Amino acid sequence: MSTEVRTKVDDGVALLTVSNPERRNAMNLDLAGKLVSALDEAVADPSVGAIVITGEPPAFCAGGDLAELQSADPATLRRVYSGFLAVANCPLPTLAAVNGAAVGAGLNLALACDVRLAGPGAKFDARFMQLGLHPGGGYTWMAQRAIGAQAAAALTLFCDVLDATEAERVGLVYRRYDDDDALLAGAHELASRAASASRSLIETTKATMRVTSGTVSHAEATEIEVRAQAASVHSEDFKQRVTALQKRISKR
Questions:
Q1: What whole-number distance in Å separates Cα of residue 116 and Cα of residue 28?
Q2: Mean pLDDT of all residues belonging to the chain
Q3: Strand residue runs (E) in the chain
Q4: pLDDT tens-digit profile of 142-166?
Q5: What is d(CA 3, CA 16) in angstroms, rounded to the nearest whole number?
Q6: Torsion angle, alpha carbons of 194, 123, 157, 143, to 10
Q7: Helices and strands (H, E) in the chain, number of each type
Q8: pLDDT for the residue 1
Q9: For residues 173-207, b (16+ Cβ closer than 10 Å) or e, as one string?
């Protein structure tokens, strides 16, 4: 069985393609480890400012490897989780280009990304209850934060399966596309916007968003932001961008 995570860097965007074609990109231990390595390499590359994750067509990720799961202990499960937890903890902006079925662990992989986009064949299927399997990898936390308690319950407890249109309606995906070429182009275009910003600035801003998404007040969020914003005001990148903007305005 051949598993790999292919990386292509273009215009500051690292496209990571998860590939386990014999199992529709199911997330086994080998593939999880390769995803962690690919993410580490992308983050270590100073030319990369954003990451897009997709699957080898025609699937995104069809869940976990059931053969491995049947004999899994907590340590093994944590190794399976390592791939999408590495995505969730990535300091760079991450975007899922969901081009097919995202089932179980594949849904976790999509949820771990900051933004999700869907192609016409996208399908979001928790499938834990049907398998007699308790959700893992932080799924319940991610799902409820992404779509709220009611939609998460429908997806998880009531086994509702969402296509791209329904996923967009409930807010599970930010945007859907009519074909997979447009999906990848749209993902690249969005990601390149993030990659065009100062890398240190976008990393700091993402870190701040993580903190302020929790149980903090408006006043507390303001205090968290003020220190980071004050630092950015004195950065060389800010000065250069303001100067360039002022020059463009003066020519109008």
A1: 22
A2: 94
A3: 4-10, 13-19, 50-55, 94-98, 101-103, 115-118, 123-125, 162-163, 175-176
A4: 999 999 999 999 999 999 999 999 9
A5: 13
A6: 0
A7: 11, 9
A8: 58
A9: bbebbeebeebbebbbebbbebbebbbeebbbbbe
